[in-house]
Design a protein that fits this description.
Chain lengths: 471, 484
């Protein structure tokens, strides 16, 4: 038994990119549906990614601040952690958010089809419904927004006590010791959570430093903190062998830190893989490249003219805000508008403590590509606000074109860097010069002043930093 | 030996094309002149033949890729030529084509007396590509943004190192220059107007581009386009200033298809002609009763020569004669210089209806060819146009166009002048009609002709004379010999 329904726009996958696309599609007058397995839209981001991890990181932050208050003369005593209550609270946050998005879908008259959609041809999806049965959906246009999943390592295939980001966020228990394989943002964020809840956390990274891709001076500030909160940080090191027994997992390392150590649990966070197989893409002309990503043009159109793709399936960076922007572009294109995905800055944020955030050109990229840039740095030690919250472990820097004085990139490490970076993104998108940033009054005393002062540093005129003029 | 097949010079003003089909795969054996890819340029879709015979060692193009003139289409491993060439003492310093690939191999050879100048020149060339891969390997794997170039060097994602979060500077990555200094709304405006934002000069501080800058740039393109009459400027703009469309889906299902290059170009050219050429269409009927009988009689001998004697090929010949007699019709107008360009050659285009749209191949020097040769050529060109083998060159240099819809039907129509030409002849379906002659009606086979012309250059009386002359030449072909 199957029924057929027709839509002008069907979005396959209800993550932040998918539902943003569907909602805008509906706002632009298209008869729209979302197909997703979960009860509500939200995807990995809301259910088992950004949102739950940030909820748990908030707990980590509260614990740290309570501890740091001791230096300011406040003593709370030893915190008592009820892991079950923490989990319930976190799940409540997720439920509220996803439920809210589901409501908004209803208000907008976006049909939410709960099930697994498979392409039959370039105009039809067969949805195996979550509550049983099958439904055929005919569409004029489809946006593939099926996202990504954690990448796995074969050597951990048969290890029972191995976690990935999804299971780590479920917070079933807090192990006594945890090894994080992969020093990227997911590993460091989740490692921080478990460390603050009492686990002894170690990190192993194959590359010479944590967070490959981020500028080293930003990472250095984080590394200082991580060296204290984590038990062991091994870079230039590989996991060579793992053996699980009743007492835990014995891990042999090779490279810079050659040794064997036993852990209760291992968290594998070595990146994510796009979900581009197993749902009939081969029945269409959609082209998947050798890295598993769907090839799209700047309007996010695939090789099949009426099928678009957005978000993690289209390539790096795999970020929710990139996906939702792409989703909105695709929806506009489908509604007949002449637009394209053409950002000059996609901000990246790592929600560790301190946070690291950057957008536009990084110093590393400038070097790699031989682009001549001037870098202006403002250390947070010179910020009154940073001092008053006991967080002088921060740095704000601007990457500026020395000829036009345009701001090409912004990098920030420090408390709340993720919220501060938006100003950088706006500056880059608006093609602001360092002078524009310098001449914009920033409120005092705030951490946002560090961006203005970094611009002043570029002109050798920072109020709170004295640097003799370069000749 | 590996030979690189490169995209040859296609035609004037065309320096690149988009791959629409890849016709061979790695490992295929190809012959010289065998088609490797199908390429679409602004002017045509055609197949690019191989210049070498052998096995395809590499063809990395995909449909949608853009290739520049001189760009490598495929690498072909030619058969054991080396053995043969080895007898000649020094094969290596052959042509400048002997690519970098050959270099390392040669270096390991004992030492053929160190080659002089050419090798020294090649040395930096070959060391450059050698340097390029090195940083790519030492660089942390997932650092490059998603450019096409990155794909080739990206190591297989076998062993991901860390979550690959990173910001991407999309525009910067494209050409190492900074992205256009324009805000997102200004960039959107440019896209809507079909303007390449990178070409707009900003008037703000540090060259920041305002919406006014984009608008005035768009205006300047339009003015330039109507000024030089070439229509090339107009090509930079996408279809004429489009108005917002209603939401058709409110009334029923619709399907959207991207416009093909041929369609886009046709739209641009016709919109330009329609808005810049003051059109008038003159209609007349030619009595072809006698001609039709002669055509049938001579058709077999033309067929034997490999062509088809059709009304179109006869009209091509007749029109060339008419162009000679009425030079105003064999002209173009140069508005900017206030001059009329009279051409001393007689090239006639014929509109061909193909799968991908309207194409107009051009027959050259029609006045110097006889009807048999012309008939063969018309047949061949039409065939080429339909089989995607037509080259941009085949469609350039026309002075006058004939559009024959008679095969389909109709009694008359008003064709649009194929600017910068100044006239076009539309041909409808011939039919028997009663013609009053010496006190009675006789059935005559009448051919309806419609001549559209550029009234800036051609007056109504001239047009009437031109068309009447064409009709009379059809009625009494001896006129061709007498006056043509």
């Amino acid at each position: 038994m199957s029924t057929t329904e027709s839509f002008q726009l069907v979005v396959l996958g209800g993550g932040p990119g998918g539902y943003a696309a569907a909602f805008l599609g509906a706002d632009l007058g298209l008869k729209t549906a979302i197909v997703d397995m979960e009860e509500n839209p939200g995807g990995v981001c809301l259910y088992r990614g950004c949102i739950p991890s940030k909820a748990l990181l908030h707990i980590a932050k509260v614990l740290h601040e309570a501890d740091a208050a001791r230096a300011m003369g406040i003593e709370f005593g030893q915190p008592r952690i009820d892991v079950e209550a923490v989990r319930t609270w976190k799940e409540g946050v997720v439920r509220k958010l996803t439920g809210g998005v589901g409501q908004i879908a209803k208000f907008r008259k976006v049909t939410f089809v709960r099930g697994f959609g498979t392409f039959i041809d370039a105009h039809t999806l067969a949805v195996s419904l979550a509550l049983g049965g099958e439904q055929l959906i005919h569409f004029d246009h489809c946006i593939v927004a099926t996202g990504s999943r954690p990448a796995t390592l074969p050597m951990f295939k048969d290890v029972a006590r191995v976690l990935d980001s999804t299971s780590a966020l479920e917070l079933r228990e807090v192990p006594r010791s945890l090894l994080v394989v992969g020093g990227g943002y997911i590993g460091l964020e989740l490692g921080s959570v478990y460390a603050s809840l009492g686990a002894r956390v170690s990190v192993v990274e194959m590359m010479p430093g944590l967070l490959p891709g981020a500028d080293r001076d930003l990472v250095a500030v984080l590394e200082k903190r991580v060296a204290k909160s984590f038990e062991h940080v091994m870079v230039d090191t590989k996991v060579v062998k793992v053996r699980e027994d009743a007492d835990g997992i014995l891990v042999n390392f090779g490279g810079a830190s050659e040794q064997s150590i036993r852990y209760d649990h291992v968290l594998v966070s070595v990146g994510r893989k796009p979900n581009t197989t197993g749902f009939g893409l081969e029945k269409t002309k959609v082209r998947v490249n050798d890295r598993g990503f769907i090839d799209v043009d700047d309007q996010r159109r695939t090789n099949e003219p009426n099928i678009f793709a957005i978000g993690d399936v289209t390539g790096d960076p795999m970020l929710a805000h990139k996906a939702s922007h792409e989703g909105r572009v695709a929806a506009e294109v489908i509604a007949g508008h002449k637009v394209a995905f053409e950002p000059n800055a996609i901000p990246a944020v790592i929600f560790t403590d301190p946070e690291i955030a950057w957008c536009g050109l990084t110093e590393t990229q400038a070097k790699e590509r031989g682009i001549d840039v001037a870098v202006a740095k403002f250390p947070w030690g010179a910020s009154g606000r940073a001092m008053s919250i006991e967080r002088t472990d921060g740095l704000t820097k601007l990457i500026v074109d020395p000829k036009t004085e345009r701001v090409l990139g912004v990098g920030i490490v420090g408390a709340g860097a993720g919220d501060l970076i938006s100003e950088g993104a706006l500056a880059i998108e608006m093609a602001a010069t360092a002078a524009d940033v310098k001449l914009t009054i920033h409120p005092h005393p705030t951490l946002s002043e560090t961006i203005m002062e970094a611009a002043e540093v570029f002109y050798g005129q920072s109020t709170h930093v004295y640097r003799p003029k370069r000749s | 030996m590996i030979v690189e097949v490169r995209l040859p010079e296609i035609s004037e003003n065309v320096d690149s094309g988009d791959v629409t089909k890849v016709l061979v795969a790695q490992g295929d054996t190809v012959a010289v002149d065998q088609a490797l890819i199908e390429l679409e340029t602004e002017k045509a879709v055609f197949e690019v033949p191989s210049t070498a015979a052998g096995v395809v060692a590499e063809i990395s193009l995909k449909p949608g890729d853009s290739v520049k003139v001189g760009g490598v289409i495929a690498k072909i491993e030619t058969e054991a030529k080396e053995g043969a060439d080895a007898s000649q003492a020094a094969p290596p310093p052959k042509t400048d084509e002997a690519p970098q690939l050959a270099q390392p191999a040669r270096e390991s050879e004992p030492a053929p007396a160190p080659a002089p100048a050419p090798k020294a020149e090649e040395a930096p060339k070959s060391s450059a590509p050698a340097r390029a891969p090195a940083p790519a390997q030492s660089a942390p794997a997932p650092r490059k943004p998603e450019t096409v170039a990155a794909r080739a060097s990206a190591p297989p994602a076998e062993e991901p190192t860390a979550d690959s979060i990173r910001s991407t500077v999309v525009a910067v990555a494209k050409d190492s220059g900074a992205p256009a200094a324009a805000s997102p709304t200004v960039r959107r405006l440019a896209r809507e107007l079909g303007v390449d934002i990178n070409q707009v000069r900003g008037s703000g501080p540090s060259g920041r581009i305002s919406s006014e800058d984009v608008q005035s740039f768009a205006k300047s393109i339009i003015t330039a386009a109507t000024g030089d009459g070439g229509g090339r400027g107009a090509a930079a703009l996408t279809p004429a200033a489009a108005r917002a469309l209603p939401d058709f889906t409110r009334y029923g299902d619709v399907e959207r298809q991207p416009m093909s290059k041929v369609r886009t170009l046709t739209a641009q050219n016709l919109a330009y002609a329609w808005t810049s050429v003051p059109h008038v269409t003159q209609h007349d009927d030619a009595d072809i009763t006698t001609l039709e009988a002669a055509r049938k009689k001579h058709a077999p001998s033309v067929e034997a020569a490999g062509g088809k004697l059709t009304m179109t090929s006869i009209l091509v010949k007749v029109c060339a004669a008419a162009l000679k007699r009425f030079p105003d019709f064999n002209a173009s107008i140069d508005v900017t210089r206030g001059e009329i360009v009279y051409k001393r050659y007689y090239n006639v285009g014929i509109a061909v209806d193909t799968e991908r749209g309207l194409l107009v191949p051009v027959l050259r020097d029609v006045d110097k060819k006889n009807l048999v040769a012309l008939s063969v050529e018309v047949t061949q060109l039409a065939e080429k146009a339909r089989n995607k083998r037509i080259m941009p060159d085949d469609m350039e240099g026309g002075n006058f166009t004939i559009s024959n819809l008679g095969g389909i039907g109709g009694t008359s129509f008003t064709p649009i002048v194929n600017a910068p030409e100044v006239a076009i002849l539309g041909v409808s379906r011939s039919a028997h009609k009663p013609v009053y002659n010496n006190g009675s009606f006789e059935p005559r086979l009448m051919l309806p002709l419609s001549l559209s012309y550029d009234h800036r250059v051609i007056d109504g009386a001239s047009a009437a004379r031109f068309l009447r002359w064409v009709c009379e030449a059809l009625e009494d072909p001896i006129l061709l010999a007498l006056e043509g």
